[in-house]
Amino acid sequence: MSVAFVKEPNDSQVEVLPDRELGEHQNIVTARGLELIDKEISVLEASLEEARQADDKIAAATINRDLRYWRARHATAEVAAPDHDADIVQFGSRVTIERPDGRRQSFRIVGIDEGDPAEGLLSYVAPLARSLIGKQVGDVVKAGADDAEIVEMSHEA
Predict the structure, then answer these.
(1) What is the β-pairing status of strands 104-110 and 121-123?
(2) How many CB atoms lie within 10 A of CB 8?
(3) Does the chain have fewer CB atoms within 10 Å around its N or its C terminus?
(4) In angstroms, rounded to a whole number, what is the distance separating the alpha carbons of residues 150 and 130?
(5) Which of 10, 15, 8 is nearest to 61 (CA)?
(6) Mind listing the pLDDT tens digit of every residue in the chain (157 residues)?
(7) Where are the alpha helices (DSSP H) in 31-126?
C-alpha cells in the first residue's frame, strides 16, 4: 500500500468538531438569560486564550465549537418580559403549583438555555411550562402523571 494513503497522527491537526445543535424553537430569553449567555461567551473567550497560550489544540477546538454555539444563541436571542398587568401565566412568570399530595413547587418560565428545573427554572418548551402558559390561579394543569392546581403567580422583571 502506498504511504500516500496512510494517515499518520499529526499533533498540529485537530478534527473539526460538529457544531452543537441550535434547536428548532424560537430563542426567547429573559434579561437574566441574555446576561448568562454574555457571561458564558466571556468565560469561553478567556479559556480559548489560555488554550492557545498552552498550544492545546483539542481544547481550543472544543472551546471554538462552544463559542460558535453561544454566539449564535446571542445573535438570535429575543429578550421578553411578562406583561405585569396580565392575570395569566406567560413567559417570565413565576408560578406555584400544588400537587394532590399537598406538595408545592414554584417555577419561573424561562428560555431554553436558562432552564434548570432543580433550580426552579422551567424552559418554556417543557411540557409543564406549556401546560401552564395561558392559565390563571385556580386552574388545574397536567403536571407529569398527576394534575396540579396553580395556587400563586407573579410576574418578575
Answers:
(1) parallel
(2) 6
(3) N
(4) 13
(5) 15
(6) 454 554 554 555 566 677 777 778 889 999 999 999 999 999 999 999 999 999 999 999 999 999 999 999 999 999 998 888 889 999 999 999 999 999 999 999 999 999 999 999 999 999 999 999 999 999 999 988 889 999 999 987 5
(7) 31-53, 57-76
